[in-house]
Amino acid sequence: xxxxxxxxxxxxxxxxxxxxxxxxxxxxxxxxxxxxxxxxxxxxxxxxxxxxxxxxxxxxxxxxxxxxxxxxxxxxxxxxxxxxxxxxxxxxxxxxxxxxxxxxxxxxxxxxxxxxxxxxxxxxxxxxxxxxxxxxxxxxxxxxxxxxxxxxxxxxxxxxxxxxxxxxxxxxxxxxxxxxxxxxxxxxxxxxxxxxxxxxxxxxxxxxxxxxxxxxxxxxxxxxxxxxxxxxxxxxxxxxxxxxxxxxxxxxxxxxxxxxxxxxxxxxxxxxxxxxxxxxxxxxxxxxxxxxxxxxxxxxxxxxxxxx
Length: 308
Hints:
By secondary structure, the protein is of the alpha/beta class. 47% of the residues lie in helices and 15% in strands.
């Protein structure tokens, strides 16, 4: 029996979220390091907001990276053990690589900001959209997307759990697909408050800038196996890690398969490292016999130390 760590991506951010971890010096130090890398006070942004600023993609991505690594460092400082695997949902994969010793935190912070800007610039504001589809089989969702495309792009992009899939693409095509999904029996089709169609093929223009920056960034062999989003694979070669990160930007997040891979390797507990509880909640829905534990505050982290 073993445990794994997963790192959340965009969507778990909230003003004041790090206050849940008390005054742990390593948490503040992590944000200070991230702020120095960007020349901007990320701690103040998280502590005081406003929420609209925190929700901007170019801010959310470095903030969530810092949050995940701050909690990881707090875990290690308190004597927490080494997980059998790490993984991250979308952006969270960068935090997983930092935790695994493959990517320096000081390099990762400006890297994810560039990623965020490139992804935001790939599709003009207001032209893209994402929506969560609940209670419909993946193949029916894919069929609805094909029927709704009409020479535009709409695709299934996040396979988060059985009965919970996210679609993305051109705004009008996403709206048509939502209607088609409801007609096919979806329990809910909910538009998401995001600024770009992340992980759809519309993100492909972002990859040239991302690839150029990744090529200049040092990656080392991970000391903990990292399961990537795009291939559901563990890579050790830095060039293959870079390639997977480039393709991740415009390919689906295969989260169900990621958790199943952990379960097949003997993982029974999945700890969500950072603020939020979404990934912990998804874990048990992805694989039988796997429990999800959210370390969303100091008390939960202390409890988690007794469960590893």
